[in-house]
Design a protein that fits this description.
With 217 residues, this protein is α/β, with parallel strands linked by helices. The protein has six helices and six strands.
C-alpha cells in the first residue's frame, strides 16, 4: 500500500499573529520530519461563545492560516505534489441554529472558505483539493458543559438539557466514516457525518456568479 503522509493540525487560543507564526513553524518542522504532505486535516475547534475573539481566532482564523500555509507547501506551482486539505466544519454551519449560533457562524465561514479554495482559480495551479467535513453531535470533551458556554444558555430554562434526546455518534464512528469519505471525496464537496451515517451536502447557489459585469453597448 502506498504510504500517505498526513498532517493533523490542532491550534490553541493565541492571538492571530502568534497562531500564524506557530502554524508556520509547525509545518516547517513537519516538512523536516516527513517531507511532502499528501493530506492535511484541520480539526481544531472550541465552542465557548463567551469568548468571541478566541472562538473566531481558533475556529476560523487558525484554520485559514493552516490551510494557506499547507497549500503553499503542497502546491505543484511550488514544486509540491498537490494533495488534499480537509477542513472540519459542523452541521451547525449548514443551517442557523438557535442553540450555538456564534459557533455555527464560524463553521459557516469554514464551509465558505473551503469551497472557495476548491475553485479552479486555485486548484488548476496548485493541484490541492479542498473538502469540508461537517460532523454532527460527536461525544468528545468539547461537549462537556457546552450548554453553559453558549449564548443561548441564559435564555434556556434551567431544566432544559438539549442533549438528552439528540442523536449522537462516537469519535470512533466519526473517524471510520471520515476515512471512507476521503477514499472518494471530490474537490469542493461537503460531507455530513452525523449519527454514524454519511451523506453529501449540496448547497444551493442563491446568488451568482460571484462577479457580474455590466454589458457595454
Amino acid at each position: 500500500m502506498e504510504k500517505i503522509n498526513t498532517v493533523f493540525l490542532l491550534n490553541r487560543g493565541e492571538t492571530t499573529k502568534a497562531k500564524s507564526e506557530t502554524i508556520k513553524a509547525a509545518y516547517k518542522r513537519a516538512k523536516e520530519l516527513i517531507g511532502t504532505f499528501d493530506v492535511v486535516v484541520n480539526g481544531s475547534g472550541v465552542a465557548n461563545e463567551g469568548n468571541i475573539d478566541q472562538l473566531v481566532q481558533i475556529n476560523l482564523g487558525g484554520l485559514m492560516h493552516s490551510s494557506l500555509t499547507a497549500m503553499d507547501y503542497m502546491s505543484k506551482a511550488n514544486g509540491g505534489q498537490g494533495g488534499y486539505i480537509i477542513n472540519i466544519g459542523s452541521i451547525t454551519g449548514l443551517n442557523p441554529t438557535d442553540f450555538c449560533g456564534l459557533y455555527g457562524a464560524t463553521k459557516s465561514g469554514v464551509i465558505n472558505f473551503t469551497n472557495t479554495m476548491a475553485k479552479p482559480l486555485y486548484f488548476d495551479k496548485t493541484g490541492v483539493s479542498f473538502v469540508t467535513i461537517c460532523p454532527g453531535v460527536t461525544l468528545t470533551t468539547m461537549l462537556k458543559d457546552v450548554v453553559t458556554k453558549c449564548l443561548s444558555a441564559k435564555y434556556l430554562s434551567k431544566d432544559n438539557n438539549l442533549f438528552d434526546s439528540v442523536i449522537d455518534q462516537t469519535p470512533a464512528e466519526f473517524a471510520e466514516n471520515l476515512v471512507k469519505v476521503l477514499e472518494s471525496a471530490a474537490n469542493g464537496t461537503i460531507w455530513v457525518l452525523d449519527g454514524g451515517k454519511i451523506h453529501e451536502a449540496h448547497l444551493p447557489e442563491i446568488w451568482g456568479p460571484a462577479l457580474r459585469y455590466k454589458t457595454r453597448n
